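Objective 1b of the project was to move from sequence-level analysis to a structural picture of ligand recognition. The entry below was assembled by the postdoctoral researcher (A.K.) and checked by the PI before modelling. It contains the amino acid sequence of the target and the SMILES of the bound compound, zinc ion.
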Amino acid sequence: MKCANCGSDMRYDVSVMGLVCDYCGAVKNLPKPEDEQLIGDMDFGTAIRGAAADWGVSRRPVECKSCGAQMFYSPDQMSGICPYCGSSVVVSGEEADLGMAPNAIIPFSMTREEIAARFYRWNKFAFWSPEKFRKGKVLENLVPIYIPYWTFEADTVTTYTGRFGYTSEVGESTKTNWYQKNGVVEKHIEGISTCASKKFRDDRMLNSVISFKDSDLIEYSPDVLAGMAAEVYTVGVDDAWNAVKTKALRKRLMSAVSENEHADHCEDLKCSTEYSNIRFRYVLVPVWLAGARYKGKIYNVVASGHNGLGKCSRPLSVAKCVWTPILMLAFLIVGAILGLGPLFFGLLMMAIMAGFIIYIVSFFAAFADQRENDRKKRR
Ligand SMILES: [Zn+2]
Ligand SMILES: [Zn+2]
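Corresponding predicted holo structure:
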């Protein structure tokens, strides 16, 4: 950190638990690690009010009558299907104020056909699902939607105290020496993102398929939005920041501390952090949503429109789960009755192994060309 007084580099001084400028003698006190303070917030409200609210397109709000989802469509769409529940929705004729315009967007790079092909390919390998689900045309209403995210970056100064462990090899075994240490680490942290949709914030399926780097983002432009539905943020930026500050950011800072001490382990770590130059971006992320219908029930399908990762909830075949172990057991019992227990056991194990190998080989065969296509695409 530079001295606010003269601009020279400051040095951490344990005796004052702060930064000292050797040049002009200025001292900057830092919070004690034991207090576990998080200092420095920005005035997000003012920042949002000051941000551009021009989306570049007229904004037609849509509220789904059956599930209550709130989205908006671009003006070329008058009706559509609710991505969340599959009901049809009608776009309102009036424009609405959607507040701050997005700063960045990730365009869709996976088509509907590609996602459907991936789904069916995966589905074939869902061994424990009913056959009709595995092989049937169960996917319906694959709908594209942009989901809002907040991304953050900030400069941080963290004071810490804790026990740091260093592992070394002693002959055949390893030994860890522990030292009590305190210090300070400065780090610029970026690429922290969190879902800005209340509907999806805690959705494990969505969160496990969405991943993006700052370099995947392009500047927001209304053309990219054309013909697509988007959700407006429902988690405020200050709520998002508070969540990020205590979870994702804290995790990064912990590893920064550990790295700073070149430690293999650490425990009883306490730290206080001062944030500055906090910057946030409002980002739209492409997602395909769909339902897979089986026996009147809908199983959720979600896929990233950008990296092609997907997740699906699937029905379990009760018959398969019950009969597979029963048949195996019956086979072993027959073997025991015939006095051929070890032979039958060996045969069963070989059958399981063979089944497993066939599964793996056909899996790799099925996905080989998909990987090849992905590689071509990236080029
Ligand atoms: Zn100075
Ligand atoms: Zn709905």
